[in-house]
Specification:
Layout (H helix, E strand, L loop, with lengths): L1 H15 L3 E2 L4 E5 L4 E10 L5 E9 L3 H5 L4 E8 L6 E6 L1 H19 L6 E5 L3 H13 L4 E5 L3 H15 L2 E4 L3 H5 L4 E4 L18 E4 L12 H5 L1 E5 L2 H7 L1 H8 L8 E4 H6 L11 E5 L4 H18 L8
Parallel strand pairs: 7-8, 7-10, 8-9, 10-11, 11-14, 12-13, 12-14
Antiparallel strand pairs: 1-3, 2-3, 3-4, 4-5, 5-6
Helix pairs in contact: 1-3, 1-11, 3-4, 3-11
């Protein structure tokens, strides 16, 4: 996770510097199977000189119906000098890691330095890397977790407690997760808000990562309005983040309420947290630059360790 956070932080830095070419991702709904296919290319034009495309699918019914993760992905890394494929790698784990890493970067700049308690709603694969990332940038000693299925949240708490050496507590209600938490994370496939924004206490930092379409959201108007809102990229968030689009369409929020892009915070162009009382929120829909930065890191590590299978096109 430390490597992932470093790679993703650099990706956001390069994005803020204008060194990234990244068209909006292509989104293809597969309604009859309740799924979504996304194609996400990006080119990082700096000393890294990396290009990759990710094909990712989101099928919320996979865990219960097909015994598969909700998110599946494949990443193709290209040689920018020749256009030839350099590497084909599984993107499912990388997607989970880079999404967690983005929240780790946001938490590094936006959460209180003395944050100790994390509350997370959602206990899937993405929830695991979210907690890993926050624990990497803050000295966390307790994690409170909730999901609708008691057995899944019990297994999550047991496995993650062993992995991270942190005390995990299973909660029966979302309110128990949110109250008295320094960092609150939502990593669900819910189409409706998963907690009431009025429950957030002064000084809380929120990472909202589950919803990524214009018609779905995990956060209600109160959570958004009470927060200093940072997004991965404003122009993308205003097209894909239902958490923001829905209240704006209702007239209860204006676009100017979005304070900054994460890249601006990383570069110091805008301040992150300025006091211990403000509520901060990182709303992420996920960007292709995160995949390029992380996949390039994986590729270089694989070459150095002689891991993988060589192939010829």
């Amino acid at each position: 996770m430390k490597d992932s956070i470093e790679a993703v932080e650099n990706g956001f830095r390069q994005l803020g510097l204008g060194k990234v070419t990244m068209p909006q991702r292509l989104s293809i709904p597969v309604d009859k199977h309740h799924g979504l296919i996304l194609v996400m290319p990006a080119y990082m034009d700096n000393e890294t000189d990396a290009f990759a495309t990710k094909i990712v699918t989101v099928y919320p019914e996979n865990p219960t119906k097909n015994n598969l993760p909700t998110i599946l992905a494949m990443i193709i890394l290209l040689n920018t000098k020749t256009g030839a494929p350099t590497s084909i790698m599984d993107g499912t784990f990388i997607t989970a890691m880079r999404t967690g890493a983005a929240s780790g970067v946001a938490t590094k700049y936006l959460a209180r330095k003395n944050s100790k308690i994390v509350g997370i709603i959602g206990t899937g694969v993405q929830a695991q890397t979210q907690v890993m990332a926050v624990c990497e940038v803050r000295d966390i000693n307790r994690v409170k977790a909730y999901s609708p299925t008691a057995e899944r949240r019990k297994r999550f708490c047991y496995e993650m407690s062993k992995k991270l050496g942190v005390d995990f507590l299973c909660c029966d209600k979302p309110k128990d997760v949110v109250c008295n938490s320094d960092v609150v994370i939502t990593a669900t496939s819910s189409k409706e808000p998963v907690f009431k924004g009025e429950w957030l206490e002064p000084g809380t930092h929120v990472n909202g990562v589950g919803s990524h379409t214009p018609t779905t959201r995990e956060l209600d108007e109160a959570a958004i309005k009470r927060s200093k809102v940072v997004v991965d990229l404003k122009e993308v968030a205003l097209k894909e983040a239902g958490d923001l689009i829905i209240p704006i369409s209702k007239g209860v929020l204006v676009e100017e309420h979005i304070y900054a892009n994460l890249g601006e915070i990383v570069l110091g162009q805008k301040l992150g947290r300025v006091n211990d009382d403000e509520i901060t929120l990182f709303k992420s829909v996920g960007l292709a630059i995160q995949d390029v930065a992380t996949a390039n890191k994986v590729y270089n590590l694989a070459k150095a360790k002689k891991v993988g299978k060589e192939f010829i096109i």
